Amino acid sequence: MIDTIYIEAAVRQHPRTSVILSRFPKARLIPCERYGEVFNPRSQDFRIQKQRPALILAEKFDNFILPAPEGFGIGGEENFYFSHILNCLYDCRYCFLQGMFRSANYLLFINYESFMSAIDRKLGETVANKTVTFFSGYDCDSLALESVTGFTEAFLPFFRERPRAILELRTKSVNIQFLLDSEPFDNCITAFSFTPEEISKKTEDGVPPVKSRIKAMNQLAERGWPLGLRLDPLICHNGFESTYRRLVNDIFAAVPAKAFHSVSLGPMRFPTAMFDTIAKLYPENRLLAGPLHRSNGMVTYQKEVEEEMTQFCRSLLSEHLPTEKFFHCTPWC
Amino acid sequence: MAFRESQYMTGTVNIVSALPAEAKPLMDHFKLRSSQTDHFKIYTNSDDNVRLIISGVGKSAAAGAVKHLTKLSSSNTSDGWLNVGVAGHASLPVGTLVAAHKITDAGTGRAWYPTMVLDFPFETASLLTVKKETHNYPADALVEMEAAGFYSTASNFSINELIHCLKVVSDNRNEKKLDSRSVTEMITTHLDAVESVVHSLLRLSKNLRKRRAVPRELEHFLNRWKFTVTQSHQLEKMLRRWQVIFPEINPIEAASTDSKNSRDVLKSLYHRLTDATVEASQL
Fold it and tell me: How confident is the model at residue A328 (pLDDT cuts 50, 70, 90)?
């Protein structure tokens, strides 16, 4: 899977580096001073790199915890996100990461303890009885690279001891073994993103089938882990009513409604500059060709189309869950 | 609707070698003929999609050769670039073929990282570009005199994924084969491997050209109506979308009805594109 690993000189001797390298005994190891030398150069092609992403092991020095976008939340009184890794194992054509970063390489910041200290500082800055949500899957999939990163293994014990800090693990992965092997706790929400199977097959390269992800949700629910459901992004297509109805029915036929902590819906939208970058990478792609509309610096479906899809899916979900569990979790809305 | 064929029918690879002894086996293998001798010696194949330039020794010479070649290509932002030559290494056996995965300019300390997306059926290693010939070999790195000049200049024109350096070890702590005949023989030994890299680069270059090609109809629109610069950018984006959504419909015909000026044209195309529906199976 990974045949090239860039390693910052400063983390070469880090114990987590040794563990990760032991998983890739045949990988080409390339030393670098700072990850920016590899990740940031202008003359890179995200699409070509995505065919064979390398792993970059680096140390992060600042901006560990960032405020979540306005209105982004799942019930916590304050909302932040943190990114231990930039970029994703999967290749979803609508993903904003393709327009955000010049490189498709996986950039892993291995100083997890610095993230934890920053989370503690942030909690210390908030009123003692407030709940604070920390989203971990904003610039990556929280679980997809678990076998490489050991992320949940490191962070679950940390959050377990801080009940007012809610951790969202956002994923399309079925990499849930560590969660199944762990005692569940209420302030860790594993949130699965879905598009209908027909859409997923066409636009989400490498993502496990919908059926497998529903099975993973069910396993977690049976184990007692709270779940999130994210219909995000909503993809416009002829007959979306029947594909989304089937998706929602399949999910709630397999997973008890009481297991859901929260649901959210989000239309497909991009800032125009980001969209133009992505469209240049995939000019032949039908999803990106539209029907899309430019307005107020954003590329979106027409307002009435967005509204129709959102209302339809809201009403579908209302058949299974109370509206108190509906939240807003999409950037740029 | 099609792209301009000449823009994407083939990719291009430019090979830069410092010495005639390094270049000769490549010229023979790829059937390259002299095409220009003005300042630099340049050789091309009959399709003009594999070119070779003899740069001379040193990073400035390599940089100059790259710049010179870019002037000969109208679509040089999607060209592949390959530096082929010899280098020293402390311990690798003489005759070993190696691709550079990190190139450091010993003079400035600056480093570049060719993206490892090709299947190199041979070793890769770090490489140090020095100003003067040396037999003080750095630990675990190739040492030579051109790659930093070559790479830094080529990356101003093309993308990292398309720029690579291949070096055959000509000397180590125990052995030196630096005469012209030995150099030519050592490069000759690895021609199959070099060819496989050239073919991979040609494929990437071709795909990149196809991806970036300007829709053929753009020129027709620009000739028929008067567009501002901003409008022509908008038009190009719309025509790209058009060829995906309506590949069987000529956009000129679609836009002509009731279009008196460029604004009408853009409005007409925009509505057609925005109103288009899509089946899940088409995504």
Answer: confident
Place of tokens 């494929």: B203
Range B113-125 burial, b when 16+ CB lie within 10 A, else e = bbbbbbebeeebb
- What 3-state class would DSSP assign to B59? helix
Q: Give yes or no for residue A251 having a pLDDT over 50.
A: yes
CATH label, A4-327, candidates 3.90.1140.10, 3.40.50.150, 1.10.443.10, 3.80.30.30: 3.80.30.30
Interface contact flag, B117 A6, Cβ < 8 Å? no
Chain-centre distance for alpha carbon A141: 4
pLDDT-derived band at B5, boundaries 50, 70, 90? very low
Q: A222 — contact with chain B (CB < 8 Å)? A: no
Q: Which of A16-30, B30-44, B186-200 has the lowest mean pLDDT?
A: B30-44
Instruction: Evaluate whether A5 touches B101 at the Cβ level (below 8 Å).
Output: no
Residues 6+ apart with CB under 8 A from B4: B213, B214, B216
| R_g of chain A computed on alpha carbons | 20
Q: What is the ipTM of this complex?
A: 0.92
Place of tokens 């610096």: A297
Q: Using CA atoms, how far apart are residues A258 and A276, in angstroms rounded to an integer?
A: 41
The answer to whether A32 contacts B111, with C-beta atoms less than 8 Å apart, is yes
CATH assignment, B5-211: 3.40.50.1580
Q: Which residues of B touch A37 (CB under 8 A)?
A: 111, 113
Domain boundaries, chain B: 5-211, 214-282
Query: Are B102 and B81 a contacting pair, CB within 8 Å?
Result: no
**Quick check: A115 and A64 in contact, CB under 8 A?**
yes
CA distance B52 to B30: 10
A325 confidence band (pLDDT: 50, 70, 90): very high
For residues A14 and B102, what is the distance between their CA atoms, to the nearest angstrom? 22
Rounded CA-CA distance A145/A137 in Å is: 11
A212 band by pLDDT with thresholds 50, 70 and 90: very high
Scanning A23-111, the segments in alpha helix (DSSP H) are 36-39, 46-50, 97-100
Phi, psi of A71 (to 5 degrees): 80, 0
Radius of gyration of chain B (CA): 23
Give the separation between CA A281 and CA A292, rounded to whole angstroms: 17
Name chain A contacts of B274, Cβ cutoff 8 Å. 290-293, 302
A278: confidence class by pLDDT, cuts 50, 70, 90: very high
Q: Where are the domains of chain A?
A: 4-327
Q: Does A183 touch chain B (CB under 8 A)?
A: no
Structure tokens at B191: 């021609």
Q: Dihedral sign, CA of A116, A122, A125, A126?
A: negative
Q: What distance in Å separates the CA atoms of residue A241 and residue A195, rounded to the nearest whole number?
A: 12
What pLDDT is stored for residue A332 in this prediction?
Answer: 65
Q: Using the structure block, give the residue that is written with the tokens 């306005």.
A: A70
